[in-house]
Design goal:
Layout: H1 3-13, E1 16-18, E2 26-38, E3 45-50, E4 59-62, E5 66-73, E6 81-84, E7 109-115, E8 121-127, E9 139-144, E10 159-167, H2 172-180, E11 190-193, E12 208-210, E13 215-222, E14 229-233, E15 238-243, E16 246-247, E17 252-253, E18 255-258, E19 263-269, E20 276-283, E21 291-298, H3 316-325, E22 352-361, E23 368-371, E24 374-375, H4 383-388, E25 413-414, E26 418-422, E27 426-433, E28 439-443, E29 448-455, E30 473-474, E31 476-479, E32 483-490, E33 495-501, H5 504-508, E34 512-518
Parallel strand pairs: 2-5, 4-9, 10-13, 12-21, 22-27, 24-25, 26-34
Antiparallel strand pairs: 1-2, 2-3, 5-7, 6-8, 8-9, 10-11, 13-19, 14-18, 14-20, 15-16, 15-17, 15-19, 20-21, 22-23, 27-32, 28-31, 28-33, 29-30, 29-32, 33-34
């Protein structure tokens, strides 16, 4: 399908659209969020549905579109949605996490309004409170390039979203109760591919179809809660072209390790015998391997998929080597006309280095996770609102953790964990993982350059291993056991932003924090005003509204 035709069709397919006074187009969505009974792992269980869909509806958009999503909460508990990887430029008001937003109360609605400014790529959304992500409410969010920006590959015949993730048959509320009691949620019971697992008995319907000789784009996201997954397609290599909003050097892979929270865009050509083929997702770095399958069918296909599944790689050294093969496409343009490589991040002076060490505590038999010895606790008054209304000192303290801890913390403090970083500084963050399991970190509001992942502990000498030329700009990075990862980024997006473990158990039990980027000017140049109708709660409820920001 020609790209121009495809993008025009999106205007009619993704929701109502309008353009006002030459602004970028607006797309409107209404979501009815309810519980429903599904059996994706063979056991009837309660799940979170959006407009009766599981997974939820895909959001199709184009760079700079404005999205208006009216969410009706018909669950029996508060609700928020977050948009993983969407940078919300100057607009942390719409990030949809507990540190920025008051929850949508039961039986009420709230409308998110945000622009996918200067972004392209493959993303997803999910409910961010408690363990709700383990119950569904998840969907794909894609941002297509504008027509005037060339894409470094031919237009695909079609564009498919593949959401893979581990799955628990216990309800999210049961999982929360386990964690509240200080116990781990243990191992998942299944792996799902777009909310299902093919049985292989001839009754499975295809998730996707391909015409012989045509090339298709698949956007693969790990939306699970615990396990890294390896993804492959029987007999079909995958050409990697995009990763979390960045065009990549186009290498071919037989399989890809997709860590929790990560997304990849690949091209797949239908050039094999016309029949069914399995997409396969299986757990990595686990004693027992769980596997999920979905069917791709050739339109002229005759014959079932082979029961012989392609093997997954073993060990994390293979995975580390694959990470090292990922490279930023320096000559391609992303959301803007200038080439990605025109931003020479490796030549910018580092103004601050922060080392974050994850740790686990079992004091008094209760499990908690921490970053630099602090296990984050959400506050009744969202951190962003406390700042905006000038009462931060009544809700939390800034900078309670050291920038450079010298050892793994042996004790854990339970309190809000908030760092204050100066606007427009270029900062190096080191994630150090002394544990025996793989970690995955997501940073809201930003894309960062993942310049290195290496075994051992970090020292300044390790900067010699950094990729300072073409590391991929992305929003989620894995850290292997007994290893470290280094990222670099410019803090140019004012707001309060969530830095979190993507492993739901770890995040729920405190392995997250917030980064506050403030400017004293209170200028619309740097940040939008609090939106009209914004939900208020906690200590700010009933307080006089602060003066609006102005242009200066």
């Amino acid at each position: 399908m020609e790209r121009a035709t495809f993008l025009l069709l999106l205007c009619f397919l993704v929701g109502l659209t309008s353009t006002v006074k030459g602004e970028d187009p607006y797309f409107y969505f209404t979501w009815n969020v309810t519980y429903g009974t599904i059996s994706p792992a063979g056991v009837p269980q309660q799940a979170i549905l959006i407009n009766n869909e599981f997974p939820g509806p895909n959001i199709n958009s184009t760079s700079n579109n404005n999205l208006v999503i009216n969410v009706f909460n018909n669950l029996d508990e508060p609700l928020l949605f977050t948009w993983a990887g969407i940078q919300q430029r100057k607009n942390s008001w719409q990030d949809g996490v507990a540190g920025t937003n008051c929850p949508i109360a039961v039986g009420t609605n709230y409308t998110y309004k945000f622009q996918v400014k200067d972004q392209i790529g493959s993303y997803f959304y999910y409910p961010s409170l408690g363990m709700q992500r383990a119950a569904g409410g998840i969907g794909g969010l894609r941002i297509n390039s504008r027509l005037l920006i060339p894409v470094p590959y031919a237009d695909p015949e079609d564009d498919y979203t593949v959401l893979i993730g581990d799955w628990y048959t216990k309800s999210h509320s049961s999982l929360s109760k386990q964690l509240d009691a200080g116990r781990s949620i243990g191992r998942p019971q299944a792996v799902l591919v777009n909310g299902q697992n093919a049985k292989g008995d001839g009754s499975d319907k295809p998730l996707f179809t391909m015409k012989p000789g045509k090339t298709y784009k698949y956007r693969i996201c790990n939306v699970g809660v615990k396990n890294s997954l390896n993804f492959r397609i029987q007999g079909h290599p995958m050409l990697l072209v995009e990763m979390e909003g960045s065009h990549t050097v186009q290498n071919s892979y037989d399989s890809l390790d997709v860590h929790v929270g990560q997304c990849f865009g690949v091209l797949v050509t239908a050039d094999k015998a016309p029949k069914d083929y399995y997409m396969v997702a299986s757990t990595r770095f686990t004693k027992s391997v769980l596997t999920g399958k979905g069917i791709i069918r050739y339109t002229n296909g005759k014959g079932p998929a082979s029961p012989e599944l392609p093997p997954a790689p073993e060990g994390w050294a293979w995975s580390l080597n694959q990470f090292r093969s990922f490279r930023w496409n320096l000559t391609a343009s992303a959301a803007r006309p200038n080439p990605q490589g025109s931003y020479h991040y490796g030549q910018i002076n580092i103004t601050r280095t922060i080392k974050l060490i994850n740790s686990v505590s079992r004091d008094n038999g209760k499990l908690r996770y921490a970053i630099n010895g602090v296990s984050h606790v959400d506050t009744e008054t969202p951190l962003k609102l406390a700042e905006y209304f000038g009462i931060a000192d009544k809700v939390f303290k800034y900078d309670t953790i050291p920038d450079m801890p010298t050892s793994v913390p042996t004790s854990v403090k339970m309190q809000p964990n908030v760092l204050n970083l100066k606007h427009r500084t270029f900062i190096e963050i080191i994630f150090e993982n002394p544990e025996k399991s793989v970690q995955s970190y997501n940073f809201g509001g930003y894309a960062f350059f993942a310049v290195a992942i290496e075994p051992g502990t970090w020292t300044p000498e390790k900067r010699k291993t950094y990729n300072l030329l073409d590391a991929v700009s992305r929003h989620t990075v894995q850290v292997y056991p007994k290893s470290w990862a280094a990222i670099m980024l410019s803090f140019d997006n004012v707001g309060v932003w969530n830095l979190r473990s993507e492993l739901a158990e770890n995040r729920y039990l405190g392995q997250q924090m917030y980064i506050s980027v403030i400017t004293p000017e209170r200028s619309l140049r740097d940040e939008y005003n609090m939106p009209e109708g914004f939900l208020l709660c906690g200590l700010v409820k009933g307080l006089p509204k602060p003066a609006s920001y102005i242009n200066n």
